[in-house]
Amino acid sequence: MNEDDIYPLLAPLAGGQVYPYVAPLNQDGQPSISPPWVVFSIISAPESDTLCGQAETMLSVQVDVYSRTISEAREIRSQAYEAIKVLKPESVNNIPGYEPEARLYRASLEFQVLY
After folding, report:
1. Phi, psi of 12 (to 5 degrees)
2. Closest Cα to residue 37, out of 61, 73, 63, 66?
3. In this structure, what CATH number is given to the domain that contains residue 92?
4. What's the confidence (pLDDT) of residue 50?
5. What is the Cα–Cα distance from 77 to 1, expressed in whole angstroms?
6. Of 61, 67, 59, nearest in space to 38 by CA
7. Cα(83)–Cα(72) distance, integer angstroms
8. Domain limits at 96?
9. Residues lower than pLDDT 70 in the chain
């Protein structure tokens, strides 16, 4: 499983402004899009081994929603959770936040997927 498997699930969110790892930036390094937007990242993918070879991989994923309001960020995060349910996520964690430099609220969703 990789970014190509996750993107189609999240693509309809935030008016289609969904990006792996980083939102589009302008030449000054600032986002070149208006909120809301979604960024998702694969944090890790450790593999488990058995005596017979590789057994499984537990993929850790983080989805960050950026918005001007915390309520909109939470709503889109909720939509993201509904979208990824087909992956059978485990260890789901919701994290609120605020980015003072960008003056945006962030609602993060962390989860793991066994495949």
Report:
1. -70, -15
2. 66
3. 3.30.2000.10
4. 60
5. 21
6. 67
7. 16
8. 3-23+35-114
9. 46-55
| Predicted pLDDT at 74 | 98
Residue 29 placed within a domain: no
Note whether residue 14 is domain-resident: yes
* Total number of residues shown for the chain: 115
- 28 belongs to a structural domain: no
Structure-token match 């993060």, residue found: 108
pLDDT value, residue 115: 84
Please count the structural domains in the chain.
1
Task: Indicate the burial class of 90 (C-beta count within 10 angstroms; 0-12, 13-18, 19 or more).
Answer: exposed
pLDDT at 57: 83
The reply to whether 30 falls in a domain is no
DSSP 3-state helix, strand, coil percentages of the chain (rounded to 5)?
Answer: 25, 45, 30
CA separation (Å) from 77 to 13, 36, 39, 49, 50? 9, 11, 11, 33, 36
